[in-house]
Amino acid sequence: MLSEEQILKAYKKIGQNVAKARKERKISQLSLSLEMGYKSVSVVSFAEICLNGAHFNIAHLLEISKILGVPLNHLLDGVQEIIDMSNIEQLNLDYLK
User: Fold this and answer.
1) For the chain, which ranges sit under pLDDT 70?
2) Where is the HTH cro/C1-type domain (predicted)?
């Protein structure tokens, strides 16, 4: 089972990936927010850095993928490694018991 810390790391990695893809395409947080149907930049700006627990959900990621023209898996790069590290850490803890 993933810890809250590992889940937060995954959300942060996804936020970083979204920010990177958005910046590579020279799209502002406001423009992306508006394209997603929001009237404020806060949804994107907060989720990109996981401010106050904000994060992108799967519906957001599907929409962002479409808007930015990037494959969904591009936005999830690095998340599997975070999960794998969590599994290794759990195996180590189980072994030490």
Assistant:
1) 86-97
2) 18-75
